[in-house]
Each structure stands twice: as C-alpha cells, then as structure tokens.
Write a structure and sequence with these properties.
With 127 residues, the chain is mainly α. It contains three helices and no strands. It starts with 25 loop residues before the first helix and ends in a 38-residue tail after the last helix.
Length: 127
C-alpha cells in the first residue's frame, strides 16, 4: 500500500513482575499496583480506591464520658428509674387513691343509660 504513512509495528509490553514476598497480603498487592507507574491509570485508580478504607480512618462521632465509666452511669440511671416508679406508685390523696384516677363505674343493673326518658326506651318482645 502506498499511502505515505510509515508502517505501524506493535511491540509487546514487557510484563513486569510485582515484587511481593510470600507473606504479602492483598493490601500489599493493591498498594504495589497503584504505586506502579507502568500500570494503566484506570487500574491504578481502582486499586487506590480499594485501599482507601484501610489506609485512612473514617470520621466518626465519639462520646466523651467524664471520670465515671459506663457501668457506673448505667447504675445511676437505673436507680433513678426505680425512684420514679416508687413516686408514681405512692397515693397522693387522703383516701389512698392516686390523684387523677377515675372512679370505678357504677353498675346499676340497667343496660340503658340513666339520663334517657322512659318514652325513648323501648321494650323488645321475643314472642
């Protein structure tokens, strides 16, 4: 072919062995890949992204607890809950009932309310 362009020749890339010892971990392999400038950029970036959670810590919210440890704090809170239960169980009026309690309903024996007039009450005969 006469096109005026030089003939293209393809060279095989030399495959470079990564220098890893027999005790190398997968993290060591990924670090060697993203540090190797002969690798393609996309390969290096994927290896770097895979290593990222193991190389830099995540930012997390932490609780600061003063001199007391968690068990002491938990015991104090449980005691406070028990005291609140005792306060709720004590009677508050002179008759022994608690304030705000509803009185027991009065059972008059009639299934109809007492405020209805006799004209509105109807008897049903089953005969």
């Amino acid at each position: 072919m006469v096109s005026g362009f030089p003939e293209l020749t393809y060279k095989e890339q030399e495959s470079k062995q990564l220098d890893l010892g027999p005790t190398a971990s997968s993290l060591d392999l990924l670090q060697a890949v993203y540090r190797d400038p002969t690798q393609q950029l996309t390969t290096r970036m994927r290896a770097a992204m895979a290593c990222l959670p193991f190389e830099s810590p995540k930012l997390l919210a932490t609780a600061i607890i003063d001199e007391r440890d968690f068990a002491t704090l938990l015991d104090q809170r449980l005691k406070r809950i028990e005291q609140m239960k005792l306060i709720e169980a004590k009677p508050n009026n002179e008759k022994g009932g608690s304030v705000g309690a509803r009185p027991a309903p009065i059972n008059s024996g009639s299934p109809f309310p007492q405020n209805l007039t006799p004209t509105r009450q109807k008897r049903i005969s089953l005969s």
